[in-house]
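We emphasize that the prediction below concerns an isolated chain of 95 residues; any contacts that depend on oligomerization or on bound cofactors are therefore not represented. The input was used exactly as deposited, without trimming of termini.
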Amino acid sequence: MWQDQLIAVTSILFAYALAVQVYHGFEKKKGLVHLQTSTIFAIGSLILAYSFYTLGLFFAAIVSLMNGSLWVFLFVQKIIYHPVQVYKDPKKKKS
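Result of the prediction step, given as a token string:
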């Protein structure tokens, strides 16, 4: 199907952009994407991969799975490089 090939080629371009972002995050040791963004896109890409698979669009499913995995990498980068910090009240004195 031509739709499978078109979706796959477009998704490969998206994957390239994400791969550059993932590499840059590892190189700079920074989680540059918000958790909410990476979570929504990872889940959405994985859902699309499943949907494409059930429609018989196997190339699109594989590339969407790859995109979802790259979004998961961005999510993990954010967790590793920017752990949640507990707020400390500057007015409160240590006992």
